[in-house]
Amino acid sequence: MRTVQKLAAVVLGALRRGALPLLLALGPLGLRAQGLPAGQGAPEQLGPDQLAPGQLAPRRPTSDPATPGKLATPAAPLLLGGDPAGPRAALDSTRVFSLQDLAELVFANHPIVKQAVLLSAKAQAQVQQARGGFDPKLGAGFDRKVFGGTNYYNDWTNELKVPLWPGGVDLKASYDRYVGTYVNPEYRTPLPGLAGIGLSVPLGQGLLIDARRSTLRQARIMVAAAEADRVKQINEVWLQAAKDYWYWYYTYQQTALIQEGVALAEGRFRAVSRQVDAGDKAPIDSVEARITVQDRLLQAEQLRVELQNARLVLSNHLWNRDAQPVELPTRAVPQAVRLAPVDTTDLNRLSALAAAQHPTLRKLDAKIRQLGIEERYRRELLKPKVNVSGTLLSQGDFYRTELPATYGFGWNNYKVGVDFAFPLFLRLERGKLQQTRIQVQETGLEQQQSRRTILNQLTSTYNTLKAYERQLALQALTIDNQRTLLRAELTKFNLGESTVFLINTRETKLIDLRLKLASLQASYEKSLAELYYYAGTRTPGTE
């Protein structure tokens, strides 16, 4: 009963002294403690649906121009858990720039992403270049010498060589005409010339694999390595973009909270100043309130610069279709945090995905397969070179029906040859083979270590996320308790049992706790992006 009487006395005294604005500035609980209506609800964070970006640049007026002396109180419900309907309505003139919007711009227009796409095209070009080893080749040569009315020689040679894949065989078709007075009888041909068709077959080195087949097979394998590089580069770009996005979100939340703190401090300073003028408060109370306003204004100015810089950092990832850089507009606001939970099932799924498809492991696997082809080729070089060639011959005008069979294509008209070569010590070949085998072992060990590192990074990031989940839950409880403490302090202040210093202390602590909550939320989202990055993929909804 005594409390009710004292409360009524405070309200009546405030009405007589014109100090009702102070009660309005003290928040919903203070209003309810005085029997006045206040907003309901307690949002846990200042999301973009609760604060328009227009409230970040200029500070909001602390008094209503239409009603001099009346304090505006939209900030107090937000900080103390009131109704955020007013700020949400202000979003009609703003645009939420979501993480999905960022993903669409990055994957469509980012130069590094476009450069990564060129890796696959480059690998395909190398495959085409390797296929050039199997291109048919046409060659021709002509030499003639006439001196003193004597035709010394008239040589005309033509050859079409078609490399075949099986066995390293070369198919050859030729036409040669060597005539003249001083032509070597070994090469002399009839006047119509000689036509030939034959094969060149390696029976030793080059039968199972040769340089051109090795090059083509390695080039085809490197297409897979290039694809893994492409995915890795795109994932790296997206990880950095996601981190910059959530840093922007954090600076936005910091600025919003400090702006709310400025509005509260200014409102309290005005109300206390009126009480000092009326003789109800000591002048030192207004000095205390003014110091709080100045301190928070300084923080707001610092955060304004940080928000601008965070917006510029995020703009590094924004490009239009014409490959021109664009900046994030000041009216854009970040989306609310999703805080998607992750459990052991997700960890096991991502671990299996990383073991099977992580771009680093895929690239190393391709390198091992490439070195396997190289090792097989180096072993082939240990064999002796034994090349057998055979050509069936015919007189150059073989197309004539009256040509005798003696001069046409047949087993009696041929040319054969055998080439043999073998290094006695094979030092070069054995050294190259040993070097390739060492590279295979090195790559295999690197793959083992990379696989273990990736799985450990996944587990470590998962542990970090679970720790953030516990910290977020605890931080939310701490904020609720601090909010209750602040409301109780406001009630005591209204009853004359507290000071402005204690209210500022409680309020500053609440702001710090809310800033810590925003930091934990941003860190959680960054760690979530890292979790999917270490799994070799991207966060769901941004592929």
> pLDDT below 50 for ≥5 consecutive residues: which ranges?
1-78, 82-93
Radius of gyration, whole Å: 42 Å
Task: Give the strand tally.
Answer: 8
Strand arrangement across the biggest beta sheet: 2-3-4-5-7-8
- What shape does the CA trace take? elongated
Give the strand content. Answer: 5-15%
Mean pLDDT across every amino acid position: 82
Pairing-aware structural class of the strands and helices? Answer: alpha+beta
Largest sheet: 6 strands, antiparallel
Distance between the termini: 65 Å
Total helical segments: 13
The percentage helix is 55-70%
SSE order: HHHHHEHHEEEEHHEHHEEHH
What does this structure look like?
This protein has 543 residues and is of the alpha+beta class. Helices cover 57% and strands 13% of the residues. The protein is built from 13 helices and eight strands. The chain has helices at residues 2-17, 20-25, 28-33, 75-80, 85-89, 99-109, 111-131, 211-277, 283-315, 344-357, 359-380, 427-494, 500-534, and strands spanning 95-97, 137-147, 150-163, 170-179, 194-202, 332-334, 385-395, 414-421. It has a six-stranded antiparallel beta sheet with strand order 2-3-4-5-7-8, with no helix packed on it. A two-stranded parallel ribbon has the order 1-6. A hairpin with a 2-residue loop joins strand 2 and strand 3. Helix 8 (211-277) runs antiparallel to helix 11. The protein starts with a helix and ends in a 9-residue tail after the last helix. Mean pLDDT is 82; it is low at 1-78 and 82-93.
